[in-house]
Amino acid sequence: MLNKEKVFSLLKQIFKNRFRAGLLIVLVVVFGFMGWRILGSGQPQSQYQTAKVEKGTIIASITASGQILTANIVNITTNANGLVKNVFVKDGDRVASGQGILEITLDSDAQQKAASAWSSYLSAKNALESARVTQYSLHSEMFTKWKTFKDLAESSSYDAQEERDLPQFRIAENDWLAAEAKYKNQQNVISQTQVALNSAWLSYQAVSPVVTTPMSGMITNLTYSPGMTISASVDSGQRIAVIKSEGTPIATFNISEIDVSKVKPGQKATIELDSITDKTFTGKVLTVDRIGTVTSGVTNYPVVIKLDTEAPEILPNMAATANIILETKNNVLLVPSTAIQRQGNQSVVRVIKGRQEQTVSVEIGLTSDTQTEVLSGLAEGDEVVVSTVTSSGGQQEGGSVFGGGGAGRMFMGR
Q1: CA-CA distance, 274 to 179, in Å (whole number)?
Q2: Cα 243 to Cα 252: distance, rounded to the nearest angstrom
Q3: Which pLDDT tens digit goes with each residue over 325-343?
Q4: Which of 144, 188, 259, 273 is deepest in the core (most CB within 10 A)?
Q5: Are 232 and 111 members of one domain?
Protein backbone atom coordinates (compact mmCIF):
# COMPACT_ATOMS: atom_id res chain seq x y z
CA MET A 1 0.00 0.00 0.00
CA LEU A 2 1.11 3.53 -0.62
CA ASN A 3 1.93 5.57 2.40
CA LYS A 4 0.32 8.89 3.03
CA GLU A 5 3.31 10.96 1.82
CA LYS A 6 3.37 9.29 -1.64
CA VAL A 7 -0.38 9.73 -2.07
CA PHE A 8 -0.19 13.40 -1.13
CA SER A 9 2.73 13.98 -3.52
CA LEU A 10 0.88 12.28 -6.41
CA LEU A 11 -2.28 14.39 -5.88
CA LYS A 12 -0.23 17.56 -5.72
CA GLN A 13 1.41 16.74 -9.07
CA ILE A 14 -1.93 16.07 -10.76
CA PHE A 15 -3.48 19.36 -9.63
CA LYS A 16 -0.38 21.27 -10.74
CA ASN A 17 -0.54 19.83 -14.28
CA ARG A 18 -4.27 20.65 -14.58
CA PHE A 19 -3.64 24.25 -13.57
CA ARG A 20 -1.01 24.61 -16.26
CA ALA A 21 -3.33 23.09 -18.86
CA GLY A 22 -6.16 25.39 -17.91
CA LEU A 23 -3.90 28.40 -18.00
CA LEU A 24 -2.67 27.38 -21.44
CA ILE A 25 -6.24 27.07 -22.72
CA VAL A 26 -7.14 30.52 -21.42
CA LEU A 27 -4.07 32.07 -23.07
CA VAL A 28 -4.88 30.41 -26.39
CA VAL A 29 -8.44 31.73 -26.32
CA VAL A 30 -7.36 35.28 -25.38
CA PHE A 31 -4.61 35.55 -28.00
CA GLY A 32 -6.80 33.94 -30.63
CA PHE A 33 -9.54 36.50 -30.07
CA MET A 34 -7.07 39.36 -30.22
CA GLY A 35 -5.55 38.01 -33.42
CA TRP A 36 -9.00 37.68 -35.00
CA ARG A 37 -9.77 41.30 -34.12
CA ILE A 38 -6.47 42.53 -35.54
CA LEU A 39 -6.69 40.47 -38.72
CA GLY A 40 -10.41 41.12 -39.15
CA SER A 41 -9.98 44.89 -38.93
CA GLY A 42 -7.97 44.84 -42.16
CA GLN A 43 -10.96 43.61 -44.17
CA PRO A 44 -13.19 46.51 -45.29
CA GLN A 45 -16.88 46.40 -44.47
CA SER A 46 -19.29 47.98 -46.99
CA GLN A 47 -22.29 50.15 -46.21
CA TYR A 48 -24.87 50.55 -48.96
CA GLN A 49 -27.07 53.60 -49.34
CA THR A 50 -30.11 52.41 -51.32
CA ALA A 51 -33.31 53.79 -52.80
CA LYS A 52 -36.53 52.24 -54.07
CA VAL A 53 -37.50 52.34 -57.74
CA GLU A 54 -40.65 54.47 -57.86
CA LYS A 55 -43.13 55.72 -60.43
CA GLY A 56 -43.49 59.45 -60.88
CA THR A 57 -43.12 62.46 -63.15
CA ILE A 58 -39.82 63.53 -64.69
CA ILE A 59 -39.09 66.88 -66.29
CA ALA A 60 -36.10 67.29 -68.60
CA SER A 61 -34.93 70.90 -68.82
CA ILE A 62 -31.91 73.09 -69.50
CA THR A 63 -30.86 76.21 -67.60
CA ALA A 64 -29.77 79.48 -69.21
CA SER A 65 -28.85 82.96 -67.99
CA GLY A 66 -30.01 86.22 -69.52
CA GLN A 67 -31.85 89.47 -68.91
CA ILE A 68 -35.13 91.26 -69.45
CA LEU A 69 -35.19 92.89 -72.89
CA THR A 70 -38.29 95.00 -72.53
CA ALA A 71 -41.24 95.41 -70.24
CA ASN A 72 -43.48 97.20 -72.78
CA ILE A 73 -41.72 100.47 -72.13
CA VAL A 74 -41.13 103.22 -74.72
CA ASN A 75 -38.98 106.30 -74.16
CA ILE A 76 -40.50 109.74 -74.81
CA THR A 77 -37.71 111.90 -76.25
CA THR A 78 -37.19 115.31 -77.81
CA ASN A 79 -34.53 116.92 -79.98
CA ALA A 80 -35.55 120.41 -78.90
CA ASN A 81 -33.42 122.65 -76.66
CA GLY A 82 -34.66 125.26 -74.22
CA LEU A 83 -36.40 125.75 -70.86
CA VAL A 84 -39.31 123.68 -69.61
CA LYS A 85 -42.35 125.96 -69.53
CA ASN A 86 -45.16 123.62 -68.48
CA VAL A 87 -45.55 119.99 -67.46
CA PHE A 88 -49.05 118.63 -68.11
CA VAL A 89 -48.81 115.18 -66.48
CA LYS A 90 -47.26 113.40 -63.52
CA ASP A 91 -45.96 109.90 -62.84
CA GLY A 92 -48.75 107.34 -62.82
CA ASP A 93 -51.09 109.29 -65.14
CA ARG A 94 -52.83 107.46 -67.98
CA VAL A 95 -52.34 109.19 -71.33
CA ALA A 96 -53.58 108.72 -74.89
CA SER A 97 -51.48 108.57 -78.02
CA GLY A 98 -50.50 112.07 -79.18
CA GLN A 99 -51.32 113.72 -75.85
CA GLY A 100 -49.03 116.60 -74.81
CA ILE A 101 -47.03 116.01 -71.66
CA LEU A 102 -44.58 118.94 -71.64
CA GLU A 103 -44.06 122.38 -73.24
CA ILE A 104 -40.65 123.94 -73.95
CA THR A 105 -39.64 127.54 -74.50
CA LEU A 106 -37.26 126.99 -77.42
CA ASP A 107 -33.92 128.75 -77.77
CA SER A 108 -33.13 130.52 -81.08
CA ASP A 109 -31.48 127.54 -82.71
CA ALA A 110 -34.33 125.23 -81.72
CA GLN A 111 -36.89 127.76 -83.04
CA GLN A 112 -35.20 127.76 -86.42
CA LYS A 113 -35.20 123.96 -86.55
CA ALA A 114 -38.85 123.82 -85.54
CA ALA A 115 -39.84 126.39 -88.19
CA SER A 116 -37.96 124.50 -90.90
CA ALA A 117 -39.54 121.20 -89.86
CA TRP A 118 -43.02 122.79 -89.85
CA SER A 119 -42.45 124.19 -93.34
CA SER A 120 -41.42 120.75 -94.60
CA TYR A 121 -44.52 119.27 -93.05
CA LEU A 122 -46.81 121.81 -94.74
CA SER A 123 -45.08 121.19 -98.07
CA ALA A 124 -45.59 117.43 -97.73
CA LYS A 125 -49.22 118.02 -96.79
CA ASN A 126 -49.77 120.16 -99.91
CA ALA A 127 -48.10 117.51 -102.06
CA LEU A 128 -50.54 114.92 -100.76
CA GLU A 129 -53.53 117.10 -101.45
CA SER A 130 -52.26 117.81 -104.96
CA ALA A 131 -51.78 114.09 -105.61
CA ARG A 132 -55.35 113.42 -104.51
CA VAL A 133 -56.71 116.14 -106.85
CA THR A 134 -54.77 114.58 -109.71
CA GLN A 135 -56.25 111.21 -108.80
CA TYR A 136 -59.78 112.61 -109.06
CA SER A 137 -58.99 113.94 -112.55
CA LEU A 138 -57.50 110.66 -113.69
CA HIS A 139 -60.43 108.78 -112.26
CA SER A 140 -62.84 110.93 -114.30
CA GLU A 141 -60.72 110.55 -117.44
CA MET A 142 -60.57 106.77 -117.00
CA PHE A 143 -64.36 106.45 -116.86
CA THR A 144 -64.77 108.79 -119.86
CA LYS A 145 -62.42 106.63 -121.96
CA TRP A 146 -64.12 103.50 -120.70
CA LYS A 147 -67.55 104.84 -121.70
CA THR A 148 -66.31 105.62 -125.22
CA PHE A 149 -64.86 102.16 -125.64
CA LYS A 150 -67.96 100.51 -124.14
CA ASP A 151 -70.26 102.26 -126.63
CA LEU A 152 -68.13 101.09 -129.55
CA ALA A 153 -67.94 97.53 -128.21
CA GLU A 154 -71.73 97.35 -127.85
CA SER A 155 -72.38 98.92 -131.25
CA SER A 156 -73.60 96.65 -134.06
CA SER A 157 -70.95 98.19 -136.31
CA TYR A 158 -68.25 96.24 -134.52
CA ASP A 159 -69.80 92.81 -134.08
CA ALA A 160 -67.38 90.96 -136.32
CA GLN A 161 -63.78 90.36 -135.35
CA GLU A 162 -62.41 92.04 -138.44
CA GLU A 163 -64.41 95.16 -137.55
CA ARG A 164 -62.90 95.17 -134.04
CA ASP A 165 -59.45 95.17 -135.61
CA LEU A 166 -60.13 98.53 -137.23
CA PRO A 167 -57.94 101.46 -135.96
CA GLN A 168 -60.81 103.46 -134.45
CA PHE A 169 -61.86 100.52 -132.28
CA ARG A 170 -58.29 99.70 -131.14
CA ILE A 171 -57.55 103.40 -130.40
CA ALA A 172 -60.63 103.66 -128.14
CA GLU A 173 -59.63 100.50 -126.32
CA ASN A 174 -56.02 101.64 -125.82
CA ASP A 175 -57.14 105.09 -124.62
CA TRP A 176 -59.26 103.42 -121.93
CA LEU A 177 -56.41 101.07 -120.84
CA ALA A 178 -53.92 103.95 -120.71
CA ALA A 179 -56.27 106.03 -118.57
CA GLU A 180 -56.78 103.09 -116.23
CA ALA A 181 -52.99 102.61 -115.89
CA LYS A 182 -52.50 106.31 -115.07
CA TYR A 183 -55.18 106.11 -112.38
CA LYS A 184 -53.61 103.06 -110.75
CA ASN A 185 -50.16 104.64 -110.87
CA GLN A 186 -51.52 107.75 -109.17
CA GLN A 187 -52.63 105.57 -106.24
CA ASN A 188 -48.96 104.65 -105.75
CA VAL A 189 -48.02 108.34 -105.89
CA ILE A 190 -50.54 109.06 -103.13
CA SER A 191 -49.08 106.27 -100.96
CA GLN A 192 -45.60 107.74 -101.40
CA THR A 193 -46.69 111.27 -100.53
CA GLN A 194 -48.54 109.95 -97.48
CA VAL A 195 -45.33 108.34 -96.24
CA ALA A 196 -43.44 111.58 -96.86
CA LEU A 197 -46.09 113.49 -94.90
CA ASN A 198 -45.80 111.09 -91.94
CA SER A 199 -42.01 111.44 -91.99
CA ALA A 200 -42.26 115.23 -92.05
CA TRP A 201 -44.69 115.20 -89.12
CA LEU A 202 -42.38 112.98 -87.04
CA SER A 203 -39.47 115.26 -87.83
CA TYR A 204 -41.48 118.23 -86.65
CA GLN A 205 -42.58 116.44 -83.47
CA ALA A 206 -38.94 115.76 -82.62
CA VAL A 207 -38.20 119.52 -82.45
CA SER A 208 -41.67 120.77 -81.54
CA PRO A 209 -42.05 122.91 -78.42
CA VAL A 210 -44.80 120.54 -77.23
CA VAL A 211 -43.63 116.98 -76.43
CA THR A 212 -46.35 114.39 -77.08
CA THR A 213 -46.77 110.70 -76.28
CA PRO A 214 -46.08 108.18 -79.07
CA MET A 215 -48.60 105.66 -77.69
CA SER A 216 -51.23 105.15 -75.01
CA GLY A 217 -50.18 103.98 -71.57
CA MET A 218 -49.00 105.12 -68.15
CA ILE A 219 -46.40 107.84 -67.60
CA THR A 220 -43.37 106.85 -65.50
CA ASN A 221 -39.87 108.20 -64.95
CA LEU A 222 -40.86 111.81 -65.64
CA THR A 223 -37.56 113.63 -65.06
CA TYR A 224 -38.37 117.29 -65.80
CA SER A 225 -40.23 120.10 -64.09
CA PRO A 226 -40.84 123.77 -65.04
CA GLY A 227 -37.68 125.87 -65.14
CA MET A 228 -35.29 123.02 -65.98
CA THR A 229 -33.07 123.19 -69.07
CA ILE A 230 -33.28 120.59 -71.81
CA SER A 231 -30.15 120.01 -73.88
CA ALA A 232 -30.91 117.33 -76.45
CA SER A 233 -28.43 115.23 -78.38
CA VAL A 234 -28.59 115.45 -82.16
CA ASP A 235 -28.34 111.69 -82.60
CA SER A 236 -30.56 110.20 -79.89
CA GLY A 237 -32.42 113.13 -78.34
CA GLN A 238 -33.15 113.69 -74.67
CA ARG A 239 -35.41 111.35 -72.72
CA ILE A 240 -38.24 113.22 -71.04
CA ALA A 241 -40.23 110.35 -69.57
CA VAL A 242 -41.18 106.72 -70.11
CA ILE A 243 -44.56 105.40 -71.15
CA LYS A 244 -45.53 101.89 -70.11
CA SER A 245 -48.24 99.98 -71.92
CA GLU A 246 -50.08 96.83 -70.93
CA GLY A 247 -48.37 93.62 -71.97
CA THR A 248 -46.01 90.92 -70.81
CA PRO A 249 -42.22 91.30 -70.57
CA ILE A 250 -39.77 89.70 -73.00
CA ALA A 251 -36.36 88.32 -72.04
CA THR A 252 -33.35 86.93 -73.88
CA PHE A 253 -31.16 84.04 -72.72
CA ASN A 254 -27.92 82.52 -74.02
CA ILE A 255 -27.94 78.79 -74.85
CA SER A 256 -24.78 76.75 -75.39
CA GLU A 257 -24.00 74.94 -78.63
CA ILE A 258 -24.68 71.63 -76.85
CA ASP A 259 -28.26 72.58 -75.94
CA VAL A 260 -29.38 74.81 -78.83
CA SER A 261 -30.57 71.87 -80.96
CA LYS A 262 -32.96 70.85 -78.15
CA VAL A 263 -34.74 74.21 -77.89
CA LYS A 264 -37.74 74.97 -80.11
CA PRO A 265 -40.33 77.79 -80.27
CA GLY A 266 -43.39 77.04 -78.17
CA GLN A 267 -41.58 75.24 -75.35
CA LYS A 268 -42.57 76.26 -71.82
CA ALA A 269 -40.11 77.78 -69.36
CA THR A 270 -39.90 78.99 -65.78
CA ILE A 271 -38.07 82.27 -65.12
CA GLU A 272 -36.49 83.51 -61.91
CA LEU A 273 -35.08 87.01 -61.39
CA ASP A 274 -32.17 87.80 -59.08
CA SER A 275 -33.95 90.93 -57.84
CA ILE A 276 -37.31 89.21 -57.18
CA THR A 277 -36.46 86.25 -54.99
CA ASP A 278 -39.97 85.33 -53.82
CA LYS A 279 -41.57 84.72 -57.23
CA THR A 280 -41.17 82.35 -60.16
CA PHE A 281 -42.64 83.35 -63.52
CA THR A 282 -43.67 81.21 -66.48
CA GLY A 283 -43.19 81.88 -70.16
CA LYS A 284 -42.87 80.46 -73.66
CA VAL A 285 -40.00 80.35 -76.15
CA LEU A 286 -40.67 82.75 -79.03
CA THR A 287 -37.54 82.52 -81.19
CA VAL A 288 -34.21 80.66 -81.32
CA ASP A 289 -31.20 82.29 -83.01
CA ARG A 290 -29.35 79.34 -84.57
CA ILE A 291 -26.51 81.47 -85.99
CA GLY A 292 -25.26 82.62 -82.60
CA THR A 293 -22.48 84.94 -81.54
CA VAL A 294 -18.89 84.16 -80.56
CA THR A 295 -17.38 85.91 -77.54
CA SER A 296 -13.86 85.01 -76.34
CA GLY A 297 -14.02 81.75 -78.27
CA VAL A 298 -17.37 80.72 -76.73
CA THR A 299 -20.46 80.44 -78.96
CA ASN A 300 -23.84 81.41 -77.50
CA TYR A 301 -27.24 81.19 -79.16
CA PRO A 302 -29.82 83.78 -78.01
CA VAL A 303 -33.29 82.49 -77.15
CA VAL A 304 -36.18 84.94 -76.69
CA ILE A 305 -38.83 84.05 -74.10
CA LYS A 306 -42.09 85.92 -73.52
CA LEU A 307 -43.50 85.81 -70.00
CA ASP A 308 -47.11 84.72 -69.53
CA THR A 309 -48.14 87.43 -67.09
CA GLU A 310 -47.53 91.12 -66.64
CA ALA A 311 -45.55 92.13 -63.55
CA PRO A 312 -44.96 95.80 -62.74
CA GLU A 313 -41.88 94.93 -60.67
CA ILE A 314 -40.07 93.53 -63.73
CA LEU A 315 -37.89 96.21 -65.30
CA PRO A 316 -35.62 96.26 -68.40
CA ASN A 317 -32.09 94.84 -68.04
CA MET A 318 -32.88 92.82 -64.88
CA ALA A 319 -30.80 89.62 -64.63
CA ALA A 320 -32.84 86.43 -65.05
CA THR A 321 -32.43 82.64 -65.16
CA ALA A 322 -34.64 80.41 -67.30
CA ASN A 323 -35.36 76.69 -67.01
CA ILE A 324 -36.56 75.65 -70.47
CA ILE A 325 -38.69 72.51 -70.28
CA LEU A 326 -37.69 70.12 -73.06
CA GLU A 327 -39.99 67.19 -72.25
CA THR A 328 -42.21 65.90 -69.46
CA LYS A 329 -43.27 62.28 -68.79
CA ASN A 330 -45.77 61.03 -66.22
CA ASN A 331 -46.08 57.65 -64.47
CA VAL A 332 -42.60 56.40 -65.40
CA LEU A 333 -40.05 54.40 -63.40
CA LEU A 334 -37.52 56.66 -61.71
CA VAL A 335 -34.21 56.09 -59.91
CA PRO A 336 -31.70 58.58 -58.49
CA SER A 337 -29.26 59.54 -61.23
CA THR A 338 -26.38 58.62 -58.90
CA ALA A 339 -27.49 54.96 -59.16
CA ILE A 340 -26.72 54.86 -62.90
CA GLN A 341 -23.22 53.69 -63.83
CA ARG A 342 -21.54 53.03 -67.16
CA GLN A 343 -19.87 49.79 -68.18
CA GLY A 344 -18.59 50.32 -71.69
CA ASN A 345 -21.57 51.35 -73.79
CA GLN A 346 -24.08 49.90 -71.35
CA SER A 347 -25.91 51.59 -68.45
CA VAL A 348 -26.08 49.46 -65.31
CA VAL A 349 -27.35 49.71 -61.75
CA ARG A 350 -26.54 47.67 -58.65
CA VAL A 351 -29.60 45.99 -57.17
CA ILE A 352 -29.91 44.50 -53.67
CA LYS A 353 -31.75 41.16 -53.59
CA GLY A 354 -31.71 39.07 -50.44
CA ARG A 355 -28.97 41.28 -48.97
CA GLN A 356 -26.80 40.42 -51.98
CA GLU A 357 -25.61 42.89 -54.61
CA GLN A 358 -26.33 42.22 -58.28
CA THR A 359 -25.44 44.28 -61.37
CA VAL A 360 -28.34 44.76 -63.78
CA SER A 361 -28.25 46.29 -67.28
CA VAL A 362 -30.88 48.99 -67.85
CA GLU A 363 -32.20 51.14 -70.66
CA ILE A 364 -32.57 54.78 -69.63
CA GLY A 365 -34.71 57.63 -70.97
CA LEU A 366 -35.10 61.21 -69.77
CA THR A 367 -32.75 62.68 -67.19
CA SER A 368 -33.43 65.57 -64.81
CA ASP A 369 -31.12 67.22 -62.29
CA THR A 370 -31.56 64.38 -59.78
CA GLN A 371 -33.51 61.56 -61.41
CA THR A 372 -33.31 59.26 -64.42
CA GLU A 373 -36.10 57.43 -66.22
CA VAL A 374 -35.64 53.66 -66.53
CA LEU A 375 -37.26 52.15 -69.64
CA SER A 376 -36.35 48.51 -68.98
CA GLY A 377 -34.34 46.32 -66.61
CA LEU A 378 -36.02 47.30 -63.32
CA ALA A 379 -39.43 47.04 -61.70
CA GLU A 380 -41.24 49.29 -59.26
CA GLY A 381 -40.10 48.57 -55.72
CA ASP A 382 -36.63 47.25 -56.66
CA GLU A 383 -33.90 48.42 -54.30
CA VAL A 384 -30.95 50.02 -56.08
CA VAL A 385 -27.60 51.07 -54.67
CA VAL A 386 -27.14 54.83 -54.67
CA SER A 387 -23.68 54.79 -53.07
CA THR A 388 -21.24 52.53 -51.22
CA VAL A 389 -19.15 53.55 -48.19
CA THR A 390 -16.36 51.22 -46.96
CA SER A 391 -15.70 51.17 -43.21
CA SER A 392 -11.90 50.80 -43.52
CA GLY A 393 -11.15 53.97 -45.43
CA GLY A 394 -14.49 55.70 -45.72
CA GLN A 395 -14.37 55.51 -49.53
CA GLN A 396 -17.63 56.27 -51.28
CA GLU A 397 -18.77 54.94 -54.63
CA GLY A 398 -21.78 55.80 -56.74
CA GLY A 399 -22.17 59.48 -55.85
CA SER A 400 -23.96 61.30 -53.08
CA VAL A 401 -26.09 59.40 -50.63
CA PHE A 402 -28.72 62.08 -51.05
CA GLY A 403 -29.31 61.40 -54.73
CA GLY A 404 -33.07 61.91 -54.97
CA GLY A 405 -35.68 59.36 -55.90
CA GLY A 406 -37.36 57.04 -53.40
CA ALA A 407 -36.62 56.88 -49.70
CA GLY A 408 -33.29 55.14 -49.11
CA ARG A 409 -31.79 53.06 -46.32
CA MET A 410 -28.31 52.06 -45.12
CA PHE A 411 -27.15 48.52 -44.31
CA MET A 412 -23.91 46.57 -44.00
CA GLY A 413 -22.60 44.13 -46.58
CA ARG A 414 -19.42 42.24 -47.43
Answers
A1: 67
A2: 22
A3: 998 889 999 999 888 998 8
A4: 273
A5: yes
